[in-house]
Amino acid sequence: MIQPTQKLLEWFHSDRPLDMGVIQSYCRVIARYGNREDAAVLFQLYLEHPEDYRYVLLLEVVMRCGDMELARQLYHCSFENGTLREGIPGDVLHVLAYMGYPLSTEYLVDCVLTDDWYLSKDACLALLHMPCEDQHQRLKGKFEQVYGNTIFPEILPALCAKWAPADKMVPRLLAWGEQASVDCNGGLVWGIAMYGTSQKEQLRDVLWNPNWELYGNGTGSHWWAYMAMPMVGLTFSDLIRDLK
Predict the structure, then answer these.
(1) What is the DSSP string of 116-140?
(2) Contacts 24+ apart (CB under 8 A), 72-75
(3) Residue 115, CA distances (Å) to 52, 56, 152, 203 in order
(4) What is each CA distance from 175 to 180, 197, 213, 232, in whole angstroms?
(5) Distance between CA atoms of 116 and 125, rounded to whole angstroms?
(6) Which of 19, 103, 119, 123 minimizes the number of CB atoms within 10 Å of its CB?
(7) pTM score, two decimals?
């Protein structure tokens, strides 16, 4: 167990207030430099309060440093009759899919189609890590149903690369972004970025387009844009050169 893990355990078991920003910082360091032992001990800590989002943050280490045995344990304590137990956060869906655990794609799409923004987001992120050809028609149907709306299941467009080529889909996503709410365009950014380096200039244009407000930190748009940049090979050096 590395030292940051030990420090994090001591902090959780002390009387000091738990700060989410500090927990995230610890978890990112542990996820990068830790191993299965760190993941296992933090998984047990998470199980003490799985309904508390400060504990849910620990799952980043489980996701990146854990193995299939930990994934099985997480699944069995989180699911009942094939669905998430009451009170279990949707983050578990993304964690398990990232770890390669075989979740039901039908259930994940059920979650995508709910009115729960967080659950839909996590289900979409899970599907990005999984083959889901058996569910393409349902996803395409929902996409066409909400296309052009200002508000929609935000991360759904990120899945478009699974069923549509870039030359057909990217122009539609760009056009949609001109009328979509800036509270709800993170998935459009990711939908473009999922097509890879061929979309570098398109994403650059979107970043500099004030109508998309991708600098906004109140809606999460800045985070989705930041994560999309390396997917298309766009760097901050590129943006600085644009400014100069």
Answers:
(1) -HHHHHHHHHHHHTS--GGGHHHHH
(2) 72/101, 73/43, 74/43, 74/101, 75/101
(3) 22, 22, 9, 28
(4) 9, 20, 15, 19
(5) 14
(6) 19
(7) 0.90
Query: Other C-beta atoms within 10 Å of 223: how many?
Result: 13
Helix, strand, coil in percent for the chain, rounding step 5? 65, 0, 35
Separation CA 97–CA 224 (nearest Å)? 19
97 sits in which H/E element: helix 91-98
